[in-house]
Amino acid sequence: MALRNFKLFRGNQNEGTMEHYSVEVDKGMVVLDAIHHIQAEQAGDMALRWNCKAGKCGSCSVEINGKPKLSCMTRMNEYGPEETISVRPLQSFPVMKDLVSDVSWNYEQNKNITPFKPDPLKKGNYIMMQEDIDRVQEFRKCLECYLCQNVCHVLRDQRQKDKFIGPRFMIRLASLEMHPLDTADRIPDVKDTHGSGMCNITRCCTDVCPEHIQITDNGIIPLKERVVDRYYDPLLRLFYKLFRRKSPN
């Protein structure tokens, strides 16, 4: 056992401070374990969101020493023995209390995405290529931890939540747009409603993804390329106008 120093945010959206705590930790513990000890022994009223403690629910998203992480997957031995561990709630969203952020904005964005729309005229079994299955499956590993939303400079620094849907939902759009059995046309929404042009490909969202989804390279960039092909390539734009696919009613 070793004594470790922590600084945890205590407060709400209007006011708050970083409070100091010290707690005995054991080898192999994760940051969530240490916070639970603090909560049990020193700060019983501290708010903390968590669920599975296995890195699969995405509930325990916080900022640890300035970097968005899942506290249940961040081991204490990642930090030096004398290093103070600072934990804050996600900064891109309003603070509800202590380490809990209000991420409800994300659920509202999800409602604005056109859902999967298969061809109603096709009956029976569907046949898909394995590469198509693999591509869509990658995006569906998302935990909705919203670490990528938190680190996105458009949402966090520029506060452009009214113009950009964020990387989490860009990959949801990609999973639908790239599905070989889907017939809906979302490219106009990707360009105008969801703001694909706001992203300038910093790859910060990919860097913090706990599932290692290639958000930028496999999701956002292909969507941006489709927007460019549709609206800015003169030949492809003419071709689309002449032969564009019409979604079945």
Q: Find the structural class using helix and strand composition.
A: alpha+beta
| Average residue-wise pLDDT | 92
List the total number of helices: 10
- Share of residues in helices: 25-40%
Give the class-level CATH name of the largest domain.
Mainly Alpha
Using only CA atoms, what is the Rg?
Answer: 21 Å
Named at the architecture level, the CATH assignment of the largest domain is Orthogonal Bundle
Number of strands: 7
Model regions low in confidence, pLDDT < 50 over at least 5 residues: none
- Kindly give the count of domains: 2
Give the oligomeric state of the chains in this entry, treating copies of one chain as homo and distinct chains as hetero.
single chain
> How many angstroms separate the termini?
65 Å
Kindly estimate the percentage of residues that lie in beta strands according to DSSP. Answer: 5-15%
Please give a handful of descriptors for the protein shown.
Fumarate Reductase Iron-sulfur Protein, Chain B, domain 2; 2 domains; five-stranded mixed beta sheet; elongated; about 250 residues; Ubiquitin-like (UB roll); two-stranded antiparallel sheet
How would you explain this protein's 3D organization?
This protein is of the alpha+beta class. The protein folds into two domains: 2-101, Ubiquitin-like (UB roll); 104-243, Orthogonal Bundle (Fumarate Reductase Iron-sulfur Protein, Chain B, domain 2). It has helices at 31-41, 104-111, 130-139, 147-151, 153-156, 167-177, 187-191, 204-208, 215-231, 234-243, and strands spanning 2-11, 16-25, 61-64, 67-70, 85-88, 95-97, 100-101. The strands form two sheets. Strands 2-1-5-3-4 form a five-stranded mixed β-sheet. The chain has a two-stranded antiparallel ribbon with strand order 6-7. Strand 3 (61-64) and strand 4 (67-70) form a beta hairpin. The longest helix is centred in the C-terminal third of the chain and has 17 residues, at 215-231. The chain starts with a strand and ends in a 6-residue tail after the last helix. 31% of the residues are buried. The mean pLDDT is 92.
